[in-house]
Design a protein that fits this description.
homodimer, mainly alpha, DNA-binding
Chain lengths: 160, 160
DNA sequence: TCGGGCATGGCAACATGTTGTCATGTTGCG
DNA sequence: CGCAACATGACAACATGTTGCCATGCCCGA
């Protein structure tokens, strides 16, 4: 997000074009991510859910899993997922089952109610995806994805 | 973010490739945005700041502005920016100045201390941008940006 | 000039996520 | 087996952002 920050008035003197294009792209990524989040919440809201809950629920759609594993797959902390999972259980969209392998690490599982909610949201998502990609060149989308992937790789190597 | 959700097990039957490529791209956007945020916070931390504060501070680097205007430019709510601005003032990186045009809407302005912090962060950002874009084709970055921009346009038209 | 509409700021509740700490199960190795 | 690492869950504090509400300052038109 530093984009707006360092970009606008800091055209990199000696860096040349790639650097400017980079800042603009990072900027765009941030904006799109915001919109995507809003869209996701918009899809989940009619079902009384949110993007965060949807994501957690979806992770156990096909197989119950302990909270820690879900957190790992989603790239969040255990605690963040634990809180959301507890809320899902409270709303009876999911439930905890005993884990034969670990007494402490209960398995989060979807309930029929949860599955119904999930299907409603996934249907809405698919419809939106179809509308959104209408007339778009798949190759262009793939190229963009590869570009972003390369940036992610490079940036991750800069992280602690 | 619904990507992981609706994508993996929901290969859109009649939608064809664009739809799958779309889901994968949206997924990638989310992951990159997370990394960018982490990188931004990493750059700000040594200065005792954070990405949120940096962004607000940067918005008034060249001209003091009322909180509402900053919020608008950043695409956040007044309240969110107000809280951060108050923290910046508390830390003496910024200060409120009387607004000749509006007695209530004080102008947020950078202090010399704030300007120094800003410059340190911007320098780090620029260095990182140079490293990250090394050997990348600017045209490819621009193409990706345009693709994301198009998606943003389409998705925004689906918002309330 | 008065009054309504709008912008602004302050407050509170909430959602989401992180970091840190602690106690307690689990596991695996000597 | 027993103990030291490790995983897990529970709690608390904090950061960031949203929504809703209310009071007050500002502007413009009747």
């Amino acid at each position: 997000m530093p984009e707006k920050v360092a970009t606008r008035q800091h055209a990199v003197k000696g860096g040349g074009r790639a650097c400017d294009a980079y800042s603009a792209l990072i900027d765009q990524v941030g904006r799109l991510a915001d919109v995507v989040e809003a869209i996701g919440n918009g899809i989940a809201r009619p079902t009384g859910q949110s993007l965060a809950r949807w994501q957690v629920l979806a992770e156990v759609e096909h197989e119950a899993a302990p909270v820690g594993a879900i957190a790992c797959r989603l790239g969040h902390t255990r605690q963040a997922v634990q809180r959301v999972a507890d809320l899902l259980v409270e709303d009876e969209l999911a439930c905890y089952r005993p884990n034969p392998a670990h007494r402490r690490a209960k398995l989060l599982d979807v309930t029929p109610t949860g599955r119904a909610a999930l299907h409603r949201m996934q249907a809405a998502y698919t419809q939106l995806a179809l509308r959104t990609t209408e007339g778009l060149d798949p190759e262009r989308l793939n190229l963009a994805r590869q570009t972003l992937s390369e940036l992610q790789r490079r940036l991750e190597s800069e992280l602690p």
